[in-house]
Amino acid sequence: MKKIIIVVFVVLAYIFITKPEVDIKAPVFLGEKVSPTPTVDNWLSKDWAQKESSDDKLILEKKVELGLKPEIVWEKSERKTETDFETYTNTLVAGARSAIPTLRYDMDKFVEGDLDQRILGGYYYNQGKKVFISQRLYQKDSNFYTLTASFDNNELEKEVESIFDKIVERRLGN
């Protein structure tokens, strides 16, 4: 019996030593206040998670139990030629339409200002299911920025637009 207890104790000690539990988001102590470790996605609702992040790209994905996972993609591209904003966005839209034949835009408007933008909204069909798409295209200095979201529930549109606003505020400062 003593041998069994010793073996169990040794195994537990080995597991405890080799597999320590580490809390990646341990609290940071700031004076007397405790706050979670700051991360890039602290401003997101708990259902959204960051899949990828860099200076030129950000991918967010919403956790869902069934159906299409809503996704938001932010991309930055450098303007390599003297292409104007309208030509650039028309090329992107034409490329999207040729890649997805069922794509239909029901909203397409240009907004001029400190930050030129084009706002697009529409849908396409994937395996018989309607998928909504929302896009914002921006130009700032010599760069173009693209925000694209796809989701299968029209009720997510306001949430997606709110996240778009937060991304633009954080990435472009407007």
Report low-confidence residues grouped into runs of 5 or more: 22-26, 33-38
Stated plainly, the CATH topology is called: Protein Transport Mog1p, Chain A
User: What's the shape?
Assistant: elongated
Number of domains: 1
Q: CATH superfamily, please?
A: Mog1/PsbP, alpha/beta/alpha sandwich
CATH architecture type: 3-Layer(aba) Sandwich
Question: Which band does the percent of strand residues land in?
Answer: 35-45%
Biggest sheet overview: 7 strands, antiparallel
What are the salient characteristics of this protein?
PsbP C-terminal domain-containing protein, single chain, 9 strands, alpha+beta, seven-stranded antiparallel sheet, 38% strand, 174 residues
Description of the structure:
The strands form two sheets. The chain has a seven-stranded antiparallel sheet, with helices on both faces. The chain is elongated and about 80 Å long. The protein contains three helices and nine strands. With 174 residues, the chain is α+β, with helices and mostly antiparallel strands. It has one domain (38-172): Protein Transport Mog1p, Chain A (3-Layer(aba) Sandwich), CATH 3.40.1000.10. The N and C termini lie far apart (71 Å). It is 28% helix and 38% strand. This is PsbP C-terminal domain-containing protein.
Helices and strands, with pairings:
Layout: H1 2-18, E1 28-30, E2 33-35, E3 48-53, E4 57-62, E5 71-78, H2 85-99, E6 104-111, E7 116-126, E8 129-140, E9 143-151, H3 157-172
Antiparallel strand pairs: 1-2, 3-4, 4-5, 5-9, 6-7, 7-8, 8-9
Protein name: PsbP C-terminal domain-containing protein
